[in-house]
């Protein structure tokens, strides 16, 4: 699965109607609602939207005939295998009726065209790790963690005998990382994993 690196937009004129798509990365339903509110234009005829975060998703036709706007936008998101994303397609009516098929193509096509212009980043599943190490092993542990792709150290605090490191490990390699740190410190490091 992929998400957007940053927000992106695209404008199209279809049979005199102006369609503007705005897409951006989100992390939750609340973030989706905030994105939709921020990018909906009250002067437009319709602000149709869709979002997906994991198994959660929603869409809205905002006054267009049922199933002609929100669902095609959501299908564009799913077709490109995107997650953690919201898309708003705003329409200013140009005087020519598009019909149901035309609306589906216009909303879905504008959303898909916008998403295809975006820079995508892969979503990597992670596990949170708490790593407790002594001062004697600290430099080696941090150096090894720093050389592993996808490892993010979020915090480090110190105790009388060493350090407590909070990090996110790529889920696919978490067990191997734990084993490698345990082996290189001869078992002196303590690591606990939890779902993020």
Task: Characterize the structure shown.
With 196 residues, the protein is α+β, with helices and mostly antiparallel strands. It has two domains: 2-122, Ribosomal Protein S5, domain 2 (2-Layer Sandwich), CATH 3.30.230; 126-195, Alpha-Beta Plaits. The chain contains five helices and eleven strands. The protein has helices spanning 29-39, 70-79, 99-117, 135-146, 174-184; strands at 2-4, 8-14, 17-25, 46-53, 56-60, 85-92, 120-122, 126-134, 152-158, 162-170, 190-195. The strands form three sheets. Strands 2-3-6-4-5 form a five-stranded antiparallel sheet, with helices on both faces. Strands 9-10-8-11 form a four-stranded antiparallel sheet. A two-stranded antiparallel ribbon has the order 1-7. The longest helix is centred in the middle third of the chain and has 19 residues, at 99-117. The mean pLDDT is 93.
């Amino acid at each position: 699965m992929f998400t957007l690196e940053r927000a992106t937009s695209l404008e199209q004129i279809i049979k005199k109607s102006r369609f503007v798509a705005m897409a951006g990365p989100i992390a939750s339903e609340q973030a989706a609602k905030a994105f939709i509110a921020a990018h909906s234009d009250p002067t437009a005829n319709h602000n149709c939207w869709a979002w997906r975060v994991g198994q959660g998703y929603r869409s809205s036709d905002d006054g267009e005939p049922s199933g002609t706007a929100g669902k095609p936008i959501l299908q564009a998101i799913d077709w490109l295998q995107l997650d953690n994303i919201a898309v708003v397609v705003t329409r200013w009516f140009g005087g020519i009726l598009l019909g149901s098929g035309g609306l589906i193509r216009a909303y879905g096509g504008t959303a898909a065209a916008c998403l295809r212009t975006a820079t995508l980043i892969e979503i990597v599943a992670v596990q949170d790790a708490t790593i407790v190490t002594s001062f004697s092993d600290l430099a080696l542990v941090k150096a090894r963690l720093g050389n592993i792709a996808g490892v993010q150290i979020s915090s480090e605090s110190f105790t009388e005998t060493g350090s407590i490191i909070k990090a996110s490990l790529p889920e696919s390699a978490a067990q191997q990382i734990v084993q490698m740190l345990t082996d290189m410190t001869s078992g002196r490091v303590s690591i606990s994993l939890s779902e993020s």
